[in-house]
Amino acid sequence: MPNVDAALAITIGGLVQGSVFAMVAIGFALVYRVTGTVNLAQGAFVVLGALATYSFEQTLGWPVALAAVAALAVAGTTGFVVAVLVFAPGLRRLPPSGMVILTGGLLTLFEGAALLIWGSQSYQLPPFSGYRPVAIAGTHVPTQAFWAIGITAVVVVALWFVLQRTTLGKALRACAENPTAATLMGIDVERVRIFSYTVAAVLGALGGIAVGPIVSLQFDAGRFFTVYGFISVAIGGMSSFVGALCGGFGLGVLQQVGAGYVSSIFATTLSIGLLIVVLVWRPNGLFGRGARREDNRPPGGHALGLRLDVHPRVIRIVAIAAIATIVALPAFVGTGTLSSLCIAGILFIAVMGLDVLMGFAGQISLGHAAFVAIGGYVAAISSVRFGVPPLGGVALGLIASLICAAFLSLVTVRLRGVYMALATLAFGLLVDSLTVGLGGVTGGPSGLTAIPHFSVGGYTFADPRANYYLVWGVAIVVFAGLANILRSDFGRALRAIRTDQTAALALGIAVPRYKLYAFLISAACASIAGSLYAYYFQFLSPEMVSTPRSLEYVTMLVIGGEGTLAGPLLGVLLLVLLPTVVQPLAQVKTLFTGLLLVGGLLYLPTGILGALARAFTRRPAPLAEAAA
Amino acid sequence: MSSAPVALDVRNVTKSFGGVVAVDDVSFRIESGTLTALIGPNGAGKSTLFNLLTNLYHSDAGAVSLYGTPLHALSCDTIATLGLIRTFQTARIFAGMTVLENVLTGLHLGARTPLWAHALQSASARKEERAMRERAQAMLEAVGIAALGDRDAGALPLGLQKIVELVRALIARPRMLLLDEPAAGLNDTETASLAHLLLAIHRSGTTVFVVEHNMSLVMGIADRILVLDAGRLIADGSPNAIQSDAAVIEAYVGRSDPGRPASC
Question: Which of A485, A505, A511 lies closest to B115 in CB terms?
C-alpha cells in the first residue's frame, strides 16, 4: 500500500526534523529555567555546528568524528565567550523583555559573522554512514535519520542524569527556582548561568551536526531553528524539558504531515497559529507547571524613559533648523544619497510608531515589520491588481493594519513584557509566511512588480526629488502630530503605564485601552511607511518587510534613544546613511546591525540622544538648595 | 452615630492565600467626611484589606460598596473613576517623569480633550493643558514643594516621594482617599508636616481611610480607629477607647512573641 509507505516516510521525516527542534528546544528550556530569558540566538548554534563541521571535514579533510568534536568545541567556546561578554552582563542590567531584544541582536550578529565566514551559499554535510538507505517495512530510510534521533536520545538521557544526579544539576535547579536564595546558599549564580548558556550552545551545535547531512544550511538558517525550536518549547512549556522534547518531535511531525498532505505554507501557518494560541491561552505551555515568571523587575536601564530637559525656545529653533535642512538638502546631494534619504524618511515614520509603543508605553514589539508589510502589500496589491489610486491604497492598508492591530492587541491584552514581545514576534512570522506563501496574490518570494508611483490629484511623484519631499512631508506631519499627543495627558498616561501599571490603574488610567491606542498608533505609522515604501520602490518583496527588519527597527530605536521622537531620527540616519557613506560597512551590514543593537543595549541604555543630552545638560542642583 | 451618608460599606469580606486566612469575615462602615485609621500588628492583613477595597485582589467572599455602588465587578481603574483613590505602602512614583508630570497624572480623570484635538493642538486642548498645569503648580506650591517641580521624581528621597504620591492622589479630588502607611519611612519633621496635611485634607471634607503604624500620628488625627489582628477586626472606636482596649493591648504587647517589638 503506497499510502502507508508515504505516511511512514513522512513520519520518519518529521521525527528527524523534530529531533533538531527538540535539541534547540531543550537548549531554550535550559537557558530559560536558569535565567528566565528566551534566548533567540539559540538557532544560530545549529548553523554554527553544521557549518564548522563542514569546514573541518570538507575543507581541512579531517575525519567526520574529529570534525564534529572540533565543531562542538568551537560552538562551546563561542557560547562561553558570548555568555561572559554579553549574556551575563545583560542579565545584570536589563529586564527580561530587554534580554529578548539582546538575544535577537545576538542572532543578527551571528548571521552577519556567518555571512562573512561562509558566504551566502548553502552547505550540506555527507551522511555519517554512507548514502545507502535502510529498508524498513518496504520504506527506504536514510541512515542519518537514526543518527539524528539517536543523538537526541543520548542527549536527553545525559541531561536528565546531570540534572537529577549531580551537584551541578542541583545548583542549576536551585538557580532556576530562586537565584537570590541560591546565592545565599553559596552557589555562584553567574557561573551557573554561563554554564547553562554554554551547554545550550553545544546542544544546538549537536543538533546542527546531526541534521547537517539531511538538510542544507546557509548563514541565515539560524532564525528558522530559533523559530521552530521556540515554538516547540513554547508549546511544551518554557521551563519543561519533557515539554521541549514532546513539543519538538510533535512539531516536526506536524510540519511534515501538513507539508506532505496540504502544503508547506499551510504547515508553517498552522505551526505559528498554534504558537499564538498557546501563548495567549496557556502561556505556561501544555506541560508547564506553576506560576510563570512575571516580568515584574522594576524597569531599569533602557526601560527607563529618556527625559530631555530643553527650553521650548531651543526646541523651536532646532525644529526650524531641521525643517530648513530637510527642504534645502536635495540641492546639495547626489541621486544616490537622495534615494538613501528617502528610505531614511520612510523608516523614520515606522520607527516613530515603534517608539510610541516601546519608548512611551513600554510594550516591546518584535513584529513591527508585519505592519509595514500589511501597509505595503495591501496598498501595492490594490493598486496593481484592482487599479485603486495610491491614496486609496494607503487608506486600505491603514484599515487592514488597524484591524489586525486591534485584534492582536485584544488577544494579547493580558500578556506582559516577554510574552507580549513573543506574541508580536509570532504575528510577524505569520505575516512573513503569508507574504511568501500566498504567491498568487503577493508575487511570492520574488516579489510584486510594476507598482505605480504615488500620485495624488493628477500629480505623479515620479522623480526622486518629488518622492523625497513627499516622504519627508509625511514624516514631519507625523512627527508634529505625535509630538503633540505625547506631550499631552495621553503621553503622560502612556509613560505612567510603562513605569508602573498598578499605580496607573489606581489613578483611573484605563491601562488596556491605552495600550490598545499605543498599538494602533504604532501600527498606523508602520502601515503608512509600508505603503510609501511600495510606491517609492515600485516593487515589494517579502525580504524587504520580514521579521529581521523588525529587529532592525528595534536597533534604530535603541541606538537613537527611546522615549523621544528625535531618537528614532538619529538611529535611522545612522543605520541607513552610514553604510552608504562608509562603503565597507555595506558588506558587513548585518554584523554591524547586530553589534550596534547588542552594544547599544549594554553600553548606551538611553541611546545616542541620551548620551548627547547627558553631555550637554547641567546636573541638577543638590536637593537641599532646591528645597530651600 | 451620625447622620452622614455611608462612604464605604464593607460586609463580611474574606480572603485567603493558600491556607492562610489574611482577611477573615471583616465588616465595617465608614461615614462620609470622617478620618478613620486602620491599625494592627505586622501581618494583620491591613494592606490585603486595602488591596481588596480597590480590587487589586479579589475577595473570596463578602461585598464592598462605595456610596452605595457595589465595587465587586469593577476594574481598578473604574473604581478610581468613582472617586476612590489610593496610595501605596512603598511610594509608587512614576520614575523618569518629573514631579510636576507625576502630579499631572493625578488629573488624568478630569482630562476631556480627545486625542485628535491634542494632535492638532486645538485651542481647547491647549487651554485644558494650561489649566491642568496651573492647578498642579498651585498644588505643589500649597504643599511647599514647588521648587521640585521639574525634578525627576524617581531621584527624590523616599519622604518626598511619599509627599508627591499623596499630592498626586489628592489632586484627583477623591471622594474617599485610601492611604497605605503614609508615614512609613518619614522622619519626625516630615511626619509632623504630614499630620498637618492630613488634617487639612480632612477639614476640606474628603473622607480619609488610613493604614498606619505610627501610633502617635494616628491618635492625634483620627476620629475613629479600627484594629485588625490576624485577619479579624478586634476593636473599633475612638482613639481614647482603643488605647485602653484589652484586646488591642494583647494583640500588640500581650503575647510572648519575642520577634515582635512591643513599642508602638
Answer: A485
Provide the 10 A C-beta neighbour count for residue B189.
Answer: 9
Beta bridge pairs of residue B16: B21
B181 to B50, B93, B216, B223: CA distances (angstroms): 11, 15, 13, 17
Residue closest to A511 by CA, chosen among B56, B8, B49, B135: B56
Look up the CATH number of domain B6-93+173-254. Answer: 3.40.50.300
Judge: domain A312-616, CATH 2.30.29.
no
Q: What is the pLDDT of residues B196-253, one digit of tens each?
A: 889 999 999 899 999 988 888 888 899 999 999 888 998 898 888 888 887 777 777 6
Burial class (CB in 10 A: 0-12, 13-18, 19+), A380: buried
Cα A125 to Cα A120: distance, rounded to the nearest angstrom: 16
A509 interaction partners in chain B (CB closer than 8 Å): 77, 105, 108
Asked if A509 is an interface residue toward chain B (Cβ–Cβ < 8 A), one would say: yes
Rounded to the nearest 10°, the torsion over CA A190, A191, A197, A203 is -160
Domain locations along chain B: 6-93+173-254, 98-155
Burial of A238 (C-beta count, 10 Å sphere; 0-12/13-18/19+):
buried
Contact B118 A485 (CB under 8 A): yes
Interface check B264 vs A, CB under 8 A: no
For chain B positions 83-142, those within 8 Å of chain A (CB to CB) are 85-86, 88, 92-98, 101, 104-109, 111, 113, 115, 118-121, 125, 129, 132
> What count of other Cβ atoms lies within 10 Å of the Cβ of residue B219?
16
Query: What is the pTM for the complete model shown?
Result: 0.88
A356 at B interface, C-beta within 8 A: no
Domain boundaries, chain A: 30-219, 221-287, 312-616
In this predicted model, what pLDDT tens digit does every residue of A301-335 receive, in sequence order?
Answer: 334 445 566 677 888 888 899 999 999 988 888 88
ipTM confidence score: 0.90
